[in-house]
Amino acid sequence: MSYTDYIDFRDVKKILVIKLRHLGDVLLTTPVFYNLKKINKDISIDAFVYDESFDILKNNENIDEIITYDRSIKKFSFFKRLTKEIEIILKIRKKKYDLIINLTEGDRGAIISFFSKAKYKVGIDPKKTGFFKKEKIYTHIVKSPKTKRHTVERNLDAIRRVGIFPKEEDKKLEFNIPKKAKEKIQNILSQNNISIYDYILIHPTTRWRFKGFDKFDQLVDYFYKKNLQVVLVSGKEKYEIEMVDKIKKDLPILNLAGKVALDELAALILFSKSFYCLDSLSFHLANALKAKVFGFFGPTCDLTWGIWQNEKAKIISSKKHSCRPCSLDGCAGSKVSDCLMDISLKDVLNVSLDNNKASKPKNDQYFEDLFAQMPK
Q: In CATH, what number does 179-372 get?
């Protein structure tokens, strides 16, 4: 059975939104939850995400329950894994959802949708990918444009398909920082004689090596020589911590690599004067918090993954490479991207100055001093 008309939400009491992707992808779905809850605050809205994405949504007031999927079950034996998969399906089936919105193109979300027995099932057009007749699972198919479009808009297309058309002010990203996390970061900064809104935060790592920029050490060294407060941060993976150690060298600056939780990272971003990072979760967090952020983009498309409703954000990318964005994992799949490696320190500082001409206070010499002393 296929419905081509919009949904009558008077029939909908319980909704499940599926997004089985990485942390940044999940953050970019938050406008969907907001607009669904806006229909009727009494509608129950749940999320189904990977367990590592739980912290992205745990403080979101528009979500009633978060159901997680532990990807480590893939390492189990066939029968044990099958048992776990069935347990998840039965758990979701017992919830008796009226509407399933699957924002993930993979097969697992489609299988969950099928066994949920929900009256309405919304899914992205599989375009003959995945298992046979996959598209028949859904009552509403979401068509994707061939043109480049921001991921937030692509997520919102799922609710447009069923009759919800958000206004611009209703498309905002949401990430709520608990008071406890803010207080902890304020205490750490205070103990290190660093004032809030008076330090440069740098997050130089990402799980995707081909998104890396190799001159963060020069940037840190430059800021330090100009007597500017610098704070370094990263995830908890060993290679990230080791990378930050190499960037820091023996400079007496605050290194929080591997030492902060997601909420605390968000607080660090919120309290920073400027934030430098790669195309990663932290860039999307900065957009959600409306922080001043400079994001390095290489092979990935900034029209799809870039700035979202943040006038303080700026993208740093190569103007010399007509091939970008190529969406490859490094040049020819090498894990190294020339379009990022060719960005110079002067390029970075030039973008920093341009971004601050319109927004900086008249008595703030911060970026003017940087530009005056910029390497030739």
A: 3.40.50.2000
